Design the sequence.
């Protein structure tokens, strides 16, 4: 995997302004929704089989948000390959293989989801600051712990796999000849 | 038909006569239902999908009617993009891109985005992108279709100049036969058949690509 192409994928995502902003906001909201049920969960809790018993409301909420994250990731993968269809065909015409195009798209997907997560991190830092320096405002219940944040990042990153698979499937289907049919 | 190396071949004809199909077949984007295409000594039908990207990367350049520049890339990134999958060092890639941008007189626009350029400038970026990997052949599909006559003239003058300097083979498909003045060979097509062929090279001199 070419790191240079991966990095260019990140830049491409930023330059697609509206798509970038809208999906960063969506991913950020999603990261928050995943982090909320995990607020009081530790790695030790997740290692326990009772966490997966589906009788715990925390695990049910977590499953729902994870499913939502997977759907969003698949939607983003689909939209990305849809909007970039002509560009993918052009890149294939000028000598890019499927692997190269896939690397570019993975860079774009992972960057957008990570930025969405970083917004949650930023929000948490602000809440921590308010909690520390504005004592008459009680926001301690909104603070996410280190474990919850790390678990959220892991879940967000893993949820991108179906999105990447959707994008990859569509990338494979784009034939370079499409670029000449732009007219 | 044979395409002579280092020359400009212009294929003209009315819409629907099959000239773009011919270009697709010649460039390996499509396979012929009958007959065969020998490109640089290789039968394109025998080249696998896995091998095609490398061949396109090293031997073929494309210029499209709609320019097909990547909107979210700068001019220099668009020009460099065919080199990204190669093993060339980024510094070398940039130097090559800058050299071709100088050749098409767009170096001062290298950090612009395609939508900030005029149609003629965008097509010059497309020429630079097609030339950056020093291909053996450049295929142009209706390259002046979205340009006014003046920009079209400038495009062909530049293409001719670069062809003479780099000796790159150029195959142009167009509906406008007026551009034949820039071509070394002019082929006219009607209903999928070649009806006129001026400047055709004799078999003995022919250097098929």
Sequence:
């Amino acid at each position: 995997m070419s790191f240079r192409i991966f990095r260019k994928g990140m830049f491409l995502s930023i330059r697609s302004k509206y798509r970038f902003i809208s999906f960063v906001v969506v991913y950020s909201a999603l990261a928050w929704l995943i982090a909320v049920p995990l607020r009081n969960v530790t790695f030790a809790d997740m290692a326990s089989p009772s966490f997966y018993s589906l009788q715990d409301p925390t695990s049910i909420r977590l499953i729902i948000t994870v499913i939502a994250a997977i759907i969003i990731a698949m939607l983003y993968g689909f939209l990305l390959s849809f909007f970039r269809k002509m560009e993918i065909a052009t890149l294939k015409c000028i000598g890019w293989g499927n692997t190269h195009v896939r690397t570019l798209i993975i860079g774009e997907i992972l960057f957008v989801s990570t930025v969405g997560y970083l917004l949650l991190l930023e929000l948490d830092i602000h809440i921590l600051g308010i909690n520390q320096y504005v004592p008459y405002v009680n926001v301690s219940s909104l603070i996410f712990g280190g474990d919850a944040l790390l678990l959220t990042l892991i879940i967000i990153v893993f949820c991108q796999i179906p999105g990447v698979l959707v994008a990859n499937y569509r990338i494979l289907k784009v034939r370079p000849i499409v670029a000449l049919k732009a007219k | 038909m044979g395409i002579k190396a280092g020359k400009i071949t212009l294929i003209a004809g009315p819409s629907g006569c099959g000239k773009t199909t011919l270009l697709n077949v010649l460039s390996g984007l499509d396979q012929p239902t009958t007959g065969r295409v020998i490109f640089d000594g290789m039968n394109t039908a025998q080249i696998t999908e896995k091998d095609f990207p490398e061949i396109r990367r090293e031997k073929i350049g494309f210029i499209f009617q709609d320019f097909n520049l990547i909107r979210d890339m700068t001019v220099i990134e668009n020009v460099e993009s065919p080199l990204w999958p190669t093993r060339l060092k980024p510094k070398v890639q940039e130097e090559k891109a800058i050299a071709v941008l100088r050749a098409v007189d767009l170096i001062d626009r290298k950090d612009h985005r395609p939508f900030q350029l005029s149609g003629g400038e965008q097509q010059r970026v497309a020429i630079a992108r097609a030339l950056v990997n020093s291909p053996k052949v450049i295929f142009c599909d209706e390259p002046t279709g979205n340009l006014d006559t003046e920009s079209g003239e400038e495009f062909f003058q530049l293409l001719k100049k670069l062809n003479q300097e780099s000796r790159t083979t150029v195959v142009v498909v167009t509906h406008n036969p007026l551009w034949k003045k820039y071509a070394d060979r002019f082929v006219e097509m009607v209903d999928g058949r070649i009806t006129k062929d001026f400047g055709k090279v004799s078999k003995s001199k022919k250097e098929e690509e």
